[in-house]
């Protein structure tokens, strides 16, 4: 019997970066990660569910869990509610996702070939849904939107990273997740946004992909209303060591799904003629809305 561990994913199609899948000793689970040395997307990456930094997020058994790694490299779980009992790794709803292009289609499937009847997060034409946060992000034309049980993402303009062409970067990316999933603790949206912006900048434009960030300029720090909740947004322009400079933004607001939950929306746009204009980022923010069935307040930002 092969012991539990990370092994080359037997179901990998060969398209895109190589990845590994967790074998629990008896079966392949839904947990995957990039193989060592494989290309990565800068910022918050979309994997099984939505990957935030090095953490895979999924909704299990009605609670929100962080599917990261323990010290011995095994997938670990940390429940948002001590009373919640997680399903075993590889359960049908573990790490499911749903992709959608921003062309008005209904995006009824995902990369694993599952359809709307397989327990996927609900989707709306032209939106990517973050089920746990209770929000939907508008998918601009030409962008790819990915819905998740926990987290949602928008990306456009894949290209080789300037600092390491073996890695893949994007010209623009917008990603959401509950603040707790990012291990971001703060009492207010303003405090959370101001704490998150430096980490957002470092993960989006630091490291070998763009080299170190040599300086930054604060472009915006102000209150904003998003999906009916009073939030806060901070935007920086960062100067990188290699390749394009960038705009990064951390937006935090109360979740319409739970008054005690803060939602973080991280954004990163290259400063480049091939990158989206900042006006697109503002349009996305204004278009964030309460997801169908989530309850809570009204529409976009002001």
How is the secondary structure organized here?
Layout: E1 5-8, E2 19-23, E3 28-34, E4 50-52, E5 55-60, E6 63-69, E7 75-76, E8 97-101, E9 127-130, E10 135-138, E11 144-148, E12 152-160, E13 168-178, H1 189-205, H2 207-210, E14 213-226, E15 229-240, E16 246-255, E17 258-270, H3 278-287, E18 289-290
Antiparallel strand pairs: 1-2, 2-3, 4-5, 5-6, 6-7, 8-11, 9-10, 10-18, 11-12, 12-13, 13-17, 14-15, 15-16, 16-17
Give the mean pLDDT.
Answer: 73
End-to-end separation: 58 Å
How much of the residues is beta strand, in percent?
35-45%
| Computed Rg | 18 Å
Describe the 3D structure:
- By secondary structure, this protein is mainly β.
- Helix content is 10%, strand content 41%.
- It contains three helices and 18 strands.
- It has helices at residues 189-205, 207-210, 278-287; strands spanning 5-8, 19-23, 28-34, 50-52, 55-60, 63-69, 75-76, 97-101, 127-130, 135-138, 144-148, 152-160, 168-178, 213-226, 229-240, 246-255, 258-270, 289-290.
Summarize the structure.
The chain has 302 residues and is mainly β. It is 10% helix and 41% strand. The chain is globular.
């Amino acid at each position: 019997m092969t012991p539990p561990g990370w092994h080359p994913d037997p179901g990998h199609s060969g398209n895109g970066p190589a990845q590994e899948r967790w074998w629990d000793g008896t079966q392949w689970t839904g947990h995957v990660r990039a193989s060592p040395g494989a290309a990565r997307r800068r910022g918050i990456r979309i994997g099984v569910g939505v990957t935030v930094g090095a953490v895979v997020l999924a909704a299990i058994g009605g609670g929100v869990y962080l599917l990261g790694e323990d010290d011995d490299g095994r997938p670990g779980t940390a429940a948002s509610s001590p009373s919640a009992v997680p399903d075993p790794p590889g359960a049908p709803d573990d790490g499911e996702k749903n992709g959608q292009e921003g062309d008005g289609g209904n995006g009824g499937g995902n990369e694993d070939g599952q359809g709307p009847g397989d327990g996927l997060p609900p989707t709306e034409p032209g939106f990517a849904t973050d089920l746990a946060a209770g929000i939907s992000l508008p998918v601009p034309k030409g962008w790819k939107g990915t819905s998740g049980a926990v987290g949602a993402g928008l990306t456009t303009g894949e290209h080789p990273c300037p600092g390491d062409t073996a890695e893949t970067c994007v010209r623009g990316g917008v990603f959401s997740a509950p603040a707790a999933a990012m291990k971001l603790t703060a009492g207010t949206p303003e405090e959370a946004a101001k704490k998150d912006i430096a980490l957002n900048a470092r993960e989006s434009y630091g490291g070998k992909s763009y080299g170190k960030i040599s300086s930054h300029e604060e472009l915006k720090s102000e209150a904003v209303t998003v999906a009916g909740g009073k939030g806060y947004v901070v935007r920086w322009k960062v100067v990188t060591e290699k390749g394009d400079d960038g705009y990064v933004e951390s937006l935090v607001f109360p979740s319409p799904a739970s008054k005690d939950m803060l939602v973080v929306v991280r954004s990163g746009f290259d400063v480049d003629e091939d990158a989206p204009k900042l006006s697109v980022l503002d349009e996305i923010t204004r278009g964030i809305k309460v997801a169908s069935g989530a309850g809570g307040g009204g529409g976009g930002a002001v």
